[in-house]
Amino acid sequence: MAVAPISSTAPERTADTNLLEVRDLVMHFPLTQGIIFQRKVGAVRAVDGVSFTIRRGETLGLVGESGCGKSTTGRAILQLYRPTSGAVEFEGVELTKLKGESLRKMRRKMQMIFQDPYASLNPRMTVGSIIGEPLDIHGLAKGKEKQQRVEELLRVVGLNPYFANRYPHEFSGGQRQRIGIARALAVNPSFIVCDEPISALDVSIQAQVINLLEELQDEFGLTYLFIAHDLSVVRHISDRVAVMYLGKIVELADHLELYEDPRHPYTKALLSAVPIPDPTIERRRERIILTGDVPSPVNPPPACRFHTRCPLADTICREQEPEFREVKPGHWAACHFA
C-alpha cells in the first residue's frame, strides 16, 4: 500500500472532539531482590492515576520537575511501556487491549519525538535510512517512491534533500532533531508525543525547532502532547497545560488561565521561579522557595503528595487525598485549599 503524500491542507480544529482520553493511568516499575530467585520487594510508582483528554488539533503541555513521571506518561500512552492499569483511548480504540499487528497498525497514527537527538538516531544508518525505516516497517513505500518521500520530508523540516546519504554525526544538534521530526512525520501520524524535544539544544536553536513544530501543526493538523520543564516554552506552544508532581497531575487549565491564576501551591512555586525580563516587576513579585527534596516515588507521602513541601499544608493534607476537581470552568486542581 503506497503512503499518501504529505498534504498541505490541515483538517479544521474541532474543540469538542477528543482525540485521546487517558483514564486512571498507572505505571509501576517493580523492584526486585535476589540474583537467582528474584522476588518483588516494592515498586517505583512513576505514574499513579493520571487522567486527561487531548482534543483534536490542540497542544497539551505537560510540565513538572525531573523524575515526576512526564516522559513515562508519554511512553505509556504510546504503549512503549505497557501500563500497569488504566485506560488509553485513541480515536475510540482502547490501546491497552491491543497486541501484535493491531497495535502496530495503530502506531502509524501515533509517533514520538525523543529528547536527545544524539542518542535517538542510529549512528550506523544514513539519514535516508533513518527517515525511511518507518515506511519499510509499515510497508508504505519502496524504491524510488520511498526515496522521493524521504526527500520530501527533509524539505518539510527545512533540510537539504541531498543530505539523505549522510550520517547523523555530520549534523548539529538542531539538524538532528529536525531529522527526528521528519522520521516522526514519515507515516502521516495524527498525534505526536514531543518528549522534551528542545531541552538538549542551544537556546538559539530552540526557538527554530518550536516554530517548526507550530508550522507543522498548522499545516498537517497535528495534535501534540508537549512534555517539558521550561514553563516559558510551554506557555508559548500549548493550548492547555497540565502540571505533574510525583506521578500525579495536580493542576490542569488553559495556558493563559494557568499562568495568570494558578490555584495549586506547587504551580505557584514553579511560576515564581520563571524569570521576568522587567526588573521592576521582578523586584515586586513574591518568590516561593520550596523546602526539602522531592520524595521518592518508591515510597511517596500519604494523602496529598505535596504536603511535605507545601507552605499551606494542614492536618487534612496528611490524612486525606485531595480530589482533582474543577475549581472554575475548565480549571482543575487537586488541593484542599484551591
Detailed description of the structure:
- With 338 residues, the chain is of the alpha/beta class.
- The protein contains 11 helices and 12 strands.
- It has an 8-stranded mixed beta sheet, with helices on both faces. A 4-stranded antiparallel beta sheet has the order 2-1-4-5.
- Helix 5 (173-185) runs parallel beside helix 6.
- The relative contact order is 0.14.
Relative strand content: 15-25%
Strand element count: 12
Widest sheet: strand ordering: 6-7-8-3-9-10-12-11
Number of helices in the DSSP assignment? 11
Q: Helix coverage percent of residues?
A: 25-40%
Q: Per the principal axes of the C-alpha atoms, what is the gross shape?
A: globular
What is the CA–CA distance across the termini? Answer: 53 Å
Q: What's the story with the biggest beta sheet?
A: 8 strands, mixed
Derived from helix and strand composition plus strand pairing, the structural class reads: alpha/beta
Secondary-structure element order, as H and E? EEEHEEHEHHHEHEHEEHHHHEE
**Roughly how many Å is the radius of gyration?**
21 Å
Low-confidence segments, given as residue ranges, are 1-5, 7-15
Mean pLDDT: 89
Give me a quick take on this structure.
The chain has 338 residues and is of the alpha/beta class. The chain has 11 helices and 12 strands. 36% of the residues are buried.
What are its keywords?
4-stranded antiparallel β-sheet; alpha/beta; disordered N terminus; 338 residues
Describe the secondary-structure layout.
Elements: E1 18-33, E2 39-55, E3 59-63, H1 70-77, E4 85-90, E5 93-94, H2 100-106, E6 110-113, H3 127-137, H4 143-156, H5 173-185, E7 191-195, H6 203-220, E8 223-228, H7 231-237, E9 240-245, E10 248-254, H8 255-260, H9 265-272, H10 279-284, H11 315-319, E11 325-328, E12 331-333
Parallel strand pairs: 3-8, 3-9, 6-7, 7-8
Antiparallel strand pairs: 1-2, 1-4, 4-5, 9-10, 10-12, 11-12
